[in-house]
Amino acid sequence: MTAVNESPVADRPVASRGRGVSLVTILGAAGSLLLIISGLLSWSYEPSVLEDISPRLSPVTLQLFAILIGVTGLVLVAGRVGPLRHTLSFLDTRRGLQALGIGAVLFMALSLTAITVTTGGLINANEGAWVAVVGALALAATVTQRGEDLFVRDPLRITWPGWFEILMIVALCAAALWVAAYALGHGDVWVFMTFLLTIAVICTALARAGFFSVVGLIAQRHRHVLTLGAFAAAFLFPFTQDGSEVNMSVATLVLIFGATAIGLNIVVGLAGLLDLGYVAFLGAGAYVGAILSGSAFATVGWQPPFIVTVLLGGIFAAFLGLIVGSPTLRVSGDYLAIVTLAFGEIFRLTMFNLDGNNGPNFTNGPNGITAIPDLNLFGFDFGATHVILGVPLSRAANYYLLLLFLTAFIIMVFANLNNSRIGRGWVAIREDERAAEAMGVNTFGLKLLAFAGGAFLAGVAGTIKAHYDTSVTPDQYIFLESAFLLAAVVLGGMGTIAGVMLGAVILKMLPEKLRFFEDYRLLLFGLLLVLMMRFRPEGLVANRRRQLEFHDDDEQLAEEIEAEHVEVAK
Hints:
The protein is mainly alpha-helical. The chain is built from 21 helices and four strands. The strands form two sheets. A two-stranded antiparallel sheet has the order 1-2. It has a two-stranded antiparallel ribbon with strand order 3-4.
């Protein structure tokens, strides 16, 4: 497949391509082949650990992960020699191989640790593990090679036929579906950790090689295809879990968390307002949903149709947002953060006191509202198990699909606001409020709209959360939940959709799968944030403009952003 030059941006050679096979190519090919071969060998004498990595020619878990790293290395090597050299000439293969080599060493260190811990000693490691160690070290040796004479085609010049680019998007969505299904489908902690490290190593190597820069440009040209593919992959996810209630419960919690975080992204990511009490709006919607649910412990006898409950929950949360925002949005920065933090605590304490003794009985105080019935929409009972196409869908899967449609609605609202005049006004306020006000932007009105809009979306998510949890209590909406929501936005990438969803997956799925680290989860969480602020302050999936702020001397990045605007204009 030959790339076609359609971009107005000129090629920028990193260096001239040399003749002959370089040492980087030899080390990369040798290390990758050894990793692939190791996956076909036995890794341990003990068959009862790590899902049995003792057989030969039947790779599972660690063996399969080594093969994946090796295949990635061969793809990068193919960008240096062979018939695919011209097609893959946009990849900076030296940087990619170096990152892959470092990651392979880390992968083998974790793999040998897993074998040692689960079998009782490193002596139980078989020949496959040691072959993989040699392969990883060979890949890592590429780090010693500097100043490689290699021509790298500017990614802005790379385009393929439309059908091929769409096929790439479909393949990436299918790969994401497989990764999610595999990660949740394995209960062994060591397998889960090594798998996550494998995916991180491969993604880092491809990112260093410049692969995701091209993917970003392709996504800009086929935004609707990417959106449809991502939604289809998420929709098919329950059908890969064989009725597992545990895995679908984790996925449902991720969607609730992600949908709420996208609402917070309006306030923090677009408008630049630091809100530390956002979970109160989720709680407001949840209490409205619980009170109007028809529960035996509900304090109001009225049970309207659920769509009415959803709207009332969103409106009530938006009303609270207006109440909080009107007197407080005159302040900014640390002062606004303190005020919103106080509001979150006031909401929680108010729910405690509306128990009939200290105030009107609306929430049953600290006991909350329990025994909330499952939803029943148009005859579809969300509490029952349904069999569709031969696949059982459990209660959690039913709520997952409902929340998936809600998340799609919230994403649509966020995307349209982001690309509208209102969104540009929010961005202007975030960048420089005084300059925006001098240019005629109604800063107070737009900030108030951000607060109310974000609160509305959180309230809508809260009404569904109440039915899924079957109970609502004040202790569910503490400050720590607001901190995690804010961390998902910052970790994933402020102002982005994919980044926030990725942050939600990391912060919700990892604690559920790594419960043996329960006493150290907050420590690991803090360490992760420190590392992110040091090495990737713009987030995992950075907004392009914010990325330029942190890398203002990167001319290629500026040209990529310009090219993306050209594609959007087309």
